[in-house]
Amino acid sequence: MKQKKSNVFRMICVIGAVLLFIAGTANAAERLRIDGSTTVLPITQKLAEAFMNEHPHINVSISGGGSGNGIKAMIDGTTDIAQSSRWIRPQEVKQAVDNGKYPVPFAVALDAIIPVVHPSNPVNNLSGDQLKAIYEGNIRNWREVGGQDRPVVIISRDSSSGTFGVWNDIALKGGRPSPRAQLLPSNGAITQAVASNPNAIGYIGIGYLNDSLKAVSFDGVAPTYENAANGSFPVARTLWLFTNDWPTGNTLRFINFALHPEKGQKLVKETGYVPLY
């Protein structure tokens, strides 16, 4: 009887040890959180996949709620890295400092914001003045810019988007889109909306361009990878990763991986964006 009790006790100890090992292994998985721009999202997703293959003990979770939301999450301390398709605003810097946070920027890629239409639309080029007039609602029919007799359907990003801010600053020269514009939350949503509507016009980051859309030249400059890389396309920009203070630990490891010429920057090019090197 004593031997039987002893065996049962040993079995309980073994099971307990196994459970503790499993729990310890689960807790050993380290987390890295990234939040923000949907423009930068394809880049960080590809980076994260390769990074986790190199560091299997680190779990990278990514959300794409817009540049403003990513920066807010960094200020609030709910993300390790904020991905942004625009520069941080002065009021956001003030909010961060007031909250004990000190934003540090890292350029991760170059991009161009490209006007896109449905492939059936015959319009191939729009001037800056025409694009401004379209988005402000002063041009309402495609025949006014050399297209067919059809109403223009304006598709734009919402105000939390960094893409929205850069497009408005450069293409609209500080103007605001017409109240008729449909405001959508992501590059992917704009891609779907324009691809399904022959009358629509929208704008997306170059990494989202695909065969379901037709890219339109801006002031005679073709929206090509080369023109984005050399800065000749009128709406070119830098894409950013922001951290709270100088990064350490896994955050620093990810930043170094993203900026490595033979690692992260090769992956940037694979996503269709322009690498830094």
List the helices and strands and how they pair.
Layout: H1 2-28, E1 30-36, H2 41-54, E2 58-63, H3 67-76, E3 81-84, H4 90-98, E4 103-117, E5 125-126, H5 128-135, E6 153-157, H6 162-170, E7 182-184, H7 187-195, E8 200-205, E9 214-215, E10 217-218, H8 225-230, E11 236-244, H9 249-259, H10 264-270
Parallel strand pairs: 1-2, 1-3, 5-10, 6-7, 6-8
Antiparallel strand pairs: 3-11, 4-8, 4-9, 4-11
Helix pairs in contact: 3-4, 9-10
Describe this protein's structure:
This protein has 277 residues and is an alpha/beta fold. The chain folds into 2 domains: 31-109 and 238-270, D-Maltodextrin-Binding Protein, domain 2; 111-230, D-Maltodextrin-Binding Protein, domain 2 (3-Layer(aba) Sandwich), CATH 3.40.190. The chain is built from 10 helices and 11 strands. The protein has helices at residues 2-28, 41-54, 67-76, 90-98, 128-135, 162-170, 187-195, 225-230, 249-259, 264-270; strands at 30-36, 58-63, 81-84, 103-117, 125-126, 153-157, 182-184, 200-205, 214-215, 217-218, 236-244. The strands form 2 sheets. Strands 1, 2, 3, 4, 6, 7, 8, 9 and 11 form a 9-stranded mixed sheet that branches. It has a two-stranded parallel sheet with strand order 5-10. β1 (30-36), α2 and β2 form a beta-alpha-beta unit. It starts with a helix and ends in a 7-residue tail after the last helix. Residues 4-28 have low confidence and may be disordered.
